[in-house]
């Protein structure tokens, strides 16, 4: 799995989660829900951590925790 493959899954996953949140009335920021930008940021962070795990980077080891991995 490469980076392009991982982030190509963002739009369908984001839309699916937006519908999920809408059914539970959690899609409006002003009423305590999650906005599109926050949702997309969280999805990208999860995919990035997952990709690091697949590629063999371990974020819990001090030697692997660099600024490039963290960002």
From TrEMBL:
Record's GO cellular component terms: nucleolus; TRAMP complex
Molecular function (Gene Ontology), one example: poly(A) RNA polymerase activity
One GO BP: RNA 3'-end processing
Keyword Membrane on entry: yes
SUPFAM superfamilies given in the database record: PAP/OAS1 substrate-binding domain
InterPro entries per record: Trf4-like (IPR045862)
Keywords: Membrane, Transmembrane, Transmembrane helix
Top-rank taxon: Eukaryota
Transmembrane segments: 34-57
Organism annotation: Citrus x changshan-huyou
Xref: PANTHER family: INACTIVE NON-CANONICAL POLY(A) RNA POLYMERASE PROTEIN TRF4-2-RELATED (PTHR23092:SF15), POLY(A) RNA POLYMERASE (PTHR23092)
Protein name: Uncharacterized protein
